[in-house]
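Budget justification note: compute hours in this period were largely spent on complex prediction jobs such as the one shown. Inputs:
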Amino acid sequence: MRLGTFEWMKSVNRSIIINKIRTNAPISRAQIAKETKITPPTVSSNVKELIALGIVEETDYGTSSGGRKPKMLMLTDNKYFVVGVDAGSQNIQASLSNLNGEILYRSHCSLKGVNTNELFIEALTTSINTISSFLKTNQDILGIGIAMHGVVNPLEGEAIFAPNLGLTNISIKERLSEHFQIPIYVENDARAMAMGEVWFDKTNAPLSLVTLNIGRGVGAGIIVDGKLFYGKDYLAGEIGHMTIDMNGDICDCGNRGCLQTLTSGKIIVSKAKARIPSIHFERFNDQITGDTVFQLACSGNEEAIKIFHEIGHAIGIGLINLIHLFNPERIVLGGRVMDASQYLLPIVKQIIQEKGLTGKAKNSHVEISRWGHDATLKGAIAIVLSHVFDDVAEDELTYE
Ligand SMILES: [Zn+2]
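Corresponding output:
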């Protein structure tokens, strides 16, 4: 156990102070001291260092309860930036955001025809270069975060298995380091999403949380005691391959009846093809996709609505397993399939009500990600920011 040396105490204080500014800005030095119980001189000296680093800046004057109006503090929003990348199965979306995690610029790149590790790295590099070109000369990128579908080893920054691209062992961090001399973090998309939900929750971040990213596959990000849960080989959260029906359809993984065989966009399309006369898809140029089935549901097509209710049922069964396994404070759902949340969520909640073991389990908190299609991107950004803030708190401060 580390004892409270002066240096260590100072770091802990700095961590508390910077996070207080992050979550409560604009805030005065006096308010920080009052709310964190750190002495005013210590707050002042740390704030001075953070301002010298360009991480924090003084803004307008706040209100005073008599006497001089205090200067308010906030994170700087035009000096340091982070790159967040959502590397999905069909395209790459890159973003440039400030220290508050606000997305300022975006770029898209299709992954069509990308079928080798080399081509994938090339696409990532191009995306990051494109988004970096929005920077002005006196602005810096503090890190790059990549949220990647499939099995990811965040320590090595490697995509071990990216099933939707059919690629394995992509050394993302190592290869990108040849082009970019800044910290690079690679994380599984659902885990990044979970991190984003916690990091950007400024008032009530949960200590336990499960996120589900439901699209072509289903992945879960699990937070236990405030930390991401990985398992020994980074496999934890592969709930898409939890067996729900032992005699069910064969999954991409080769097993039968995995959760994702019952919830993915693919099953929505195949159910629609089998049950909805093709004439209904004429107005969509005969395109039968998850989205067109959703649009049919919105226009009142009962069979389409029924299909979404069945998908909601399967998601509910997956979630009740997760609830009984992890008993999280909060469950957050995201991914393209959740675009149809108006049809899915009531059934999901109904299944949890029916099958929860206790009254509290029945009333588990389930919500849709407030970031919509940006949930994974926000997660990639949060992964970088959490490291940046840890570094600010722990490293020796250096001045330029
Ligand atoms: Zn499977």
